[in-house]
Design brief:
It is built from 10 helices and 10 strands. It has helices spanning 2-12, 19-23, 26-36, 49-65, 122-141, 161-168, 206-214, 240-245, 251-254, 276-280; strands spanning 75-79, 85-93, 101-107, 112-114, 117-119, 147-153, 177-184, 193-197, 219-222, 259-263.
Length: 282
């Protein structure tokens, strides 16, 4: 998590790099992860009551921060394949000196219950969602140069449907997007490693990540971009639809849009004890 925070500092606005870790509210971060992965939310599967509670929690945090949005009540509604509805929760902080946008994403849905067992999804992806909320709090206090669109996405587990809806109905011209950062499963690793996926395609960001990695107790690993002998995580989470778009019509637009996703392995199952991992990394 510390790696991530330095990484954001370097990428987003080049603020003095020691300020972030001093200002992040560890207690709030932990509370966010705890609530989102609690029994009450029952794994946050899309269309369930637990998912709605998670959405309402994210909305209430955005309201507390007085963050703006292009969507009424922060909700971007989208239709699911079976005729039901998903909800992305969108916040926005205008940049102080740029109309370019950094899209920061983390999915808040998870698997819900299977065979009577709750899959709490503390790591996947209460960790990314909590980080999104705490970055929003930070950047409300420390206004970024570029605008930041904070997207807590729904229905990732159903096939990246929230991200696809966001791409399809993006509230600004897509050419304004400078960078996409997706956070998925960032609170756990037995190997103490954190993956940054996408630098094969967007090598201009590697040096910032390397700097961040050197300052962190977590080992930052590059790759899993689908190269020879590598795993391919380029479509493994909500960055996928944005990455794929590059290969279609808007080449000139998408060339300037890097996708960096940070994934900690393993796993899709959860354990509420994971929630202490992000905090212990500070
Ligand atoms: Zn995930």
């Amino acid at each position: 998590m510390k790696t991530i925070t330095y990484f954001f500092l370097l990428l987003f606005c080049y603020l003095p790099s020691l300020t972030w870790s001093q200002k992040i509210d560890k207690q709030t971060l932990l509370q966010d992860v705890q609530y989102l992965s609690s029994d009450k939310l029952a794994g946050r599967a899309t269309t369930t009551e637990g998912n709605e509670l998670a959405a309402n929690y994210i909305i209430s945090r955005f309201e507390e921060l007085e963050i703006t949005s292009q969507y009424p009540d922060y909700i971007q509604h989208f239709t699911l394949s079976e005729g039901t509805e998903g909800r992305n929760i969108i916040g926005f902080i205008p940049g102080t000196s740029s109309s370019q946008i950094i899209l920061l994403m983390a999915h808040y849905d998870h698997l819900g219950k299977k065979d009577g067992k709750i899959y709490h999804g503390a790591d996947d992806n209460a960790s990314g969602t909590a980080t999104l909320l705490n970055l929003a709090a930070y950047f409300m206090e420390n206004k970024p140069s570029h605008s930041i669109l904070f997207a807590a996405t729904d229905a990732e587990e159903m096939g990246l449907l929230g991200a696809k809806a966001l791409l399809h109905d993006f509230p600004f011209p897509l050419k304004q997007i400078k960078l996409v950062v997706n956070m998925d499963m960032i609170s756990r690793s037995e190997e103490n490693t954190l993956y940054a996926v996408g630098t094969t395609f967007y090598p201009q960001f590697k040096r910032y990540l390397e700097k961040a990695g050197k300052r962190s107790p977590v080992e930052l690993v590059f790759g899993n971009d689908g190269g020879k002998g590598e795993l391919d995580w380029t479509n493994a989470s909500d960055h996928g639809p944005f990455h794929k778009k590059k290969f279609h019509s808007f080449i000139s637009v998408w060339q300037i849009m890097p996708i960096i996703t940070s994934l900690l392995i393993p796993s899709r199952t959860s354990n509420r004890h994971f929630i202490y991992k992000p905090v212990s990394l500070y």
